[in-house]
Amino acid sequence: MHFATLVSGSSGNATVVGHKNRNFLVDCGVSLKALLHNLELIDISSSEIEGIIVTHEHKDHIKGIGPVARKLKIPIYATAGIWEEMTSSLGKIDEQQKVIISDQFSCAGLDVQVFPTSHDSRESYGFRIQSPETGSFQSKALGIATDTGIITEEMNRYLKGCDGLVVEANHDGERLWNGRYPWYLKKRISGDRGHLENKQLAEGLLEWIQENTERVVLAHLSEENNTPELALSTILKILKNSKVAKENPELRLRVAPRHTPHELIILGED
């Protein structure tokens, strides 16, 4: 199984996940032109995209879904509540492209489990994505969870032991509270239905990372209240002397670029 963030942050979010030549998108908060360009940069053809799975209805996650779904003629997977909130923003979508999901489904040959996150949207979800076990190739699991103000019990259950993780390290608490954002926005971001702070995520990683975990990509960083260097240094400092670090010395942590794709990560490949 492979994956890569295509864009990441409050200006837009999209991730590609796949197995062999079959792929889907998790969110598409970027223009059709930008999406196709970023897919090309990591050598994935748009003809190999088989669907779009939606985490929640905020604009930075859905603004390109309508044009992309129409152009590629692919289905959109979302819960009933998300469909109610986002339908008017997508433009004309054929009925056969509308797929309502609940707790578990399959897309592009991969099994997807749905779990709730805690965000100020109608509904907000993360996903545990599992590849099939074929021949000598073991099944791999990828966990994706962004846009959550707290670490939920469901996140702990579904993200623990994943081989790869794409998870939110949105802000540094000190930079947020000492920054120029208005008070109401600081309260929103730091609240239980806002976004994860670097140290919060580190505490989650101590729970989720196991010996088999290969790669962690830090996503949805705030341009104003975080930096890639600060996110990495804060999290690595907390992980440094932990049981996690001792049991998994080869673990690689990276930060998702804001406007360009991350390199394609293939789980199980050095």
Alpha-carbon distance between the termini?
13 Å
Q: Using the alpha-carbon principal axes, give the shape.
A: globular
Poorly predicted regions are: none
**Overall average pLDDT:** 96
Q: Return the domain count.
A: 1
The first-level CATH class name: Alpha Beta
Could you give a short account of the major beta sheet? 7 strands, mixed
CATH topology name: Metallo-beta-lactamase, Chain A
Number of strands: 14
Query: CATH superfamily membership, which one?
Result: Ribonuclease Z/Hydroxyacylglutathione hydrolase-like
Number of helices: 10
* CATH architecture descriptor: 4-Layer Sandwich
Strand-residue proportion? 15-25%
Helix-strand sequence: EEEHEHHEHEEEEEHEHHHEHHEE
Structural class computed from helices and strand pairing = alpha/beta
